[in-house]
Amino acid sequence: MIDLTERILRQVIQPRPVESHKGTFGRVLVVAGNEQYGGAGIMSASAALFAGAGLVTLASAAVNRTALHARHPEIMFLDWTETAALRKSIQSADVIVVGPGLGLDPGAQALLRMVFTAVNAAQTLIVDGSALTLVAGGAIPFPQQPQLILTPHQEEWHRLSGLTIAGQTVRANQTALAQLPETTILVLKQHRTQIYADQQVYRNTTGVAAMATGGMGDTLTGIIAAFCAQFGQNKKPLPATLAAVYLHGLAGQELAVDHYVTLPSQICAQLPLLMARFSRAGL
């Protein structure tokens, strides 16, 4: 098992090119947040924004539009019942997140099927939250074409893999992962999050108990999306994913010096400061 260090941030986070525009830094679409769990979608999209994605769109239940734009007018909004517009947005994105606060009802199942059928091999698809539970139910298989990144916590991985939490050893996890599309990256969230890819296992070394609050996983998903959009070009999403996981924990760790609890919104605000620090460190 390989322990992550801040070296991964220096390797991945680069100074922004002088000649660039918003398209240079990738298009992220977040399909998340039903009427009850709208915050999950907003937090995931907010994290993608603060982590540097050039264009971020949230496709969500219509009731969440005002809350999003009151908070972050920089993020575009799409009512996910507008099927034609959603399909077009899926096809134009570089990275798609699906699942945070999606729900488990028939409408959520239909949305997930649409996403899975609309994505293509040039894209990265990050599957989280409710979407993982729906796939675990057996009716909706993962698509084979895109680069898949799965971000389950241990109970969600139990549903997907059949492994009990106690049985989630490195070898057992690798065996279960081998049953999924070949290039799948597994981000298994736990006390020390483990990342499985390319027959290797990486362990995050950042993060603190102050981060144990609702929405933290949604925030991580958004950071991974932004990093893959900016730094995961040429179908090399693994370093970007590793850096996102490490940075997420580091942001919480630094905030916890003065905060008993660190909220996802605070993590988001910390991201541009840390990214500026490590972009200079790589020079």
Automatic annotation (TrEMBL):
Entries under CDD domains matching the protein: YXKO-related
Keywords assigned: ATP-binding, Lyase, NAD, NADP, Nucleotide-binding
Pfam family, one: Carb_kinase
Residues bound to (6S)-NADPHX: A40, G101, H153, D218
Residues involved in AMP binding: K189, Q190, H191, R192, T193, G217
InterPro entries named among the record's database cross-references: Carbohydrate_kinase_pred_CS, CARKD, Ribokinase-like
EC class name: lyase
Signal peptide: none
Entry cofactors: Mg(2+)
PROSITE patterns noted in UniProt: YJEF_C_1 (PS01049), YJEF_C_2 (PS01050), YJEF_C_3 (PS51383)
SUPFAM superfamilies according to UniProt: Ribokinase-like
EC number, as in UniProt: 4.2.1.136
Sequence ranges assigned to domain YjeF C-terminal in this UniProt record: 5-278
Keyword Transit peptide listed: no
Catalysed reactions listed for this entry: (6S)-NADHX + ADP = AMP + phosphate + NADH + H(+); (6S)-NADPHX + ADP = AMP + phosphate + NADPH + H(+)
Annotated function: Catalyzes the dehydration of the S-form of NAD(P)HX at the expense of ADP, which is converted to AMP. Together with NAD(P)HX epimerase, which catalyzes the epimerization of the S- and R-forms, the enzyme allows the repair of both epimers of NAD(P)HX, a damaged form of NAD(P)H that is a result of enzymatic or heat-dependent hydration.
Subunit-level organization: Homotetramer.
Family note: Belongs to the NnrD/CARKD family.
Record-linked PANTHER family: ATP-DEPENDENT (S)-NAD(P)H-HYDRATE DEHYDRATASE, ATP-DEPENDENT (S)-NAD(P)H-HYDRATE DEHYDRATASE FAMILY MEMBER
Name the UniProt record assigns to this protein: ADP-dependent (S)-NAD(P)H-hydrate dehydratase
UniProt source species: Lapidilactobacillus achengensis
Gene that encodes it: nnrD
